[in-house]
Write a structure and sequence with these properties.
Layout (H helix, E strand, L loop, with lengths): L2 E11 L8 E3 L1 E5 L2 E2 L5 E5 L21 E3 L12 E3 L5 E3 L3 H11 L3 E5 L10 E5 H11 L12 E5 L14 E4 L7 E9 L16 H10 L2 E10 L1 E4 L3 E5 L1
Parallel strand pairs: 10-11
Antiparallel strand pairs: 1-2, 1-11, 1-16, 3-4, 3-15, 5-9, 6-7, 7-8, 10-14, 12-13, 12-16, 13-14
Length: 242
C-alpha cells in the first residue's frame, strides 16, 4: 500500500558539475533529472581514461565557484557566467574561466555542455534531513546538508536515520495530483570524498565520511531514475509505492 513518508524540505540543482549548487523553490522534473542539473562540466583535456570530468575530488576549489545567470541568458535553467572564489565574474564558455580553473588544477580544461547531463549513477539524488543530522552527530559537528549535494531533501515523517535504504525498489511520487511526478529508487548512494568538503570554502573534514562508513557502510541517501515527469516544489507530499 502507498505510504506517506514526508514532504520535500528542499530542492537543489548543480548546473556545473562540482561547482556550487542552486537552491530552488520549484523545479521541472524531466526524463533526465531536474531541468538544468549537471548539464555542464570541465573536461580534463589531457585525460584519456573513461572519466574525463574535473570534479572537486581532484580540485576542491571548484566548490567555491558559483554559476550565475545574467539577463542575457536564453535558457533560464543554465548559467551564463561563473563567479570565482575571489569574486570575479567570467563568461561560462570564456577563455578566462578555463584558464583560471586550469591554472588551479595544473592542467588544461575545457567547459562542455552535455544535453542529458553528467551523472555518477542515477539522474536524481535524494536524502532525508534526519540522515544528515545523524551523520553530523556521529561526526561531532554540525553538518551542512549541501555537503551531500542532493536534488531532493526529504523531511521525513518518521525521522529514522538511513531510512532511505528501505525505499530501494519502490517508487516515490510528489504531490497529490493525478499523474504526480515520480521517480523509481534504484540504489543506495555510496559516498565519495565530496561529503568531506565544506560547501562554502572547500576545507576538508574527513570525520564526515568516516561517520558515513561507521554508521551505514558509507551509504547515505539514494539514487533514482525518472518514472513520470512534472513539477516539483518545496512542501509537496512524498508517497512511497511498493
Amino acid at each position: 500500500m502507498p505510504i506517506e513518508i514526508g514532504q520535500i524540505e528542499a530542492l537543489f540543482r548543480y548546473p556545473v558539475k562540482s561547482m556550487r549548487g542552486e537552491p530552488l523553490d520549484a523545479a521541472t522534473l524531466g526524463w533526465h533529472g531536474l531541468e538544468g542539473d549537471r548539464r555542464l562540466a570541465f573536461r580534463r583535456v589531457d585525460e584519456r581514461g573513461g572519466f574525463p570530468w574535473l570534479t572537486a575530488s581532484k580540485l576542491p576549489d571548484l566548490i567555491s565557484f558559483t554559476p550565475l545567470r545574467r539577463d542575457d541568458g536564453k535558457n533560464e535553467a543554465l548559467p551564463t557566467h561563473v563567479r570565482t572564489p575571489e569574486g570575479e565574474e567570467m563568461p561560462l564558455f570564456g577563455e578566462a574561466l578555463a584558464a583560471e580553473v586550469g591554472r588551479r588544477f595544473g592542467a588544461p580544461v575545457q567547459m562542455m555542455h552535455l544535453k542529458h547531463g553528467i551523472f555518477d549513477e542515477g539522474s536524481i539524488s535524494v536524502i532525508a534531513s534526519g540522515t544528515v543530522q545523524e551523520i553530523g552527530r556521529l561526526a561531532g559537528r554540525s553538518t551542512d546538508i549541501r555537503r551531500f549535494r542532493p536534488n531532493i531533501v526529504v523531511r521525513s515523517t518518521h525521522a529514522v536515520p538511513f531510512e532511505e535504504d528501505q525505499w530501494v525498489g519502490g517508487v516515490l511520487t510528489f504531490g497529490e495530483a493525478d499523474g504526480a511526478p515520480a521517480v523509481t529508487v534504484t540504489m543506495r548512494d555510496l559516498r565519495c570524498v565530496m561529503v568531506n568538503f565544506d560547501p562554502d570554502g572547500g576545507s576538508p573534514s574527513p570525520e564526515v565520511m568516516k561517520a558515513c562508513v561507521r554508521a551505514n557502510q558509507n551509504h547515505a541517501g539514494i539514487y533514482a531514475t525518472v518514472t513520470r515527469i512534472g513539477r516539483l516544489s518545496v512542501g509537496q507530499t512524498i508517497v512511497l509505492h511498493r
